[in-house]
Amino acid sequence: MAADPGLIYDIEPSDYFKFFNCMGGLGSRDNCTTVKESIADLNLPSIAIPNLRTFQAMTRSVTNVDQVNAVYKAFLQPPTGVEMAVDPSVLVFSEEKKVLSFKVNFKATRRSIQGDYIFGSPLQFAL
Q1: Predicted confidence band at 114 (pLDDT cuts at 50, 70, 90)?
Q2: Nearest CA among 17, 48, 10 for reference residue 35
Q3: Strand-pair partners of 84
Q4: Helix (H, G, I), strand (E, B) or coil at 15
Q5: Whole-model pTM?
């Protein structure tokens, strides 16, 4: 429910600004020293990987806005032809640890997916 999200993916307007100005070429390239390499690097809940050939890893950070001591487990349903793994697959939040990062690994298992768009279910963390 949007009124009680549990985990949120923090992203600043400056992240979008740098992406569109530095990667998208929509403005001056001033302050482009820390530009993200691709849209896949933006800290968003959705992940799009153009032309997955072999292996790619993404890192995401989430902030717990639910109960203080919460444990979330990752649930995946990878698209056909792709293996996925989340590390760590369990996120343990506490008073001291409100923001945690995790890595999502993608591995193409079929050559036929190259150049095509395929869709999987969203990565979900549940209590």
Answers
A1: low
A2: 17
A3: 106
A4: helix
A5: 0.78
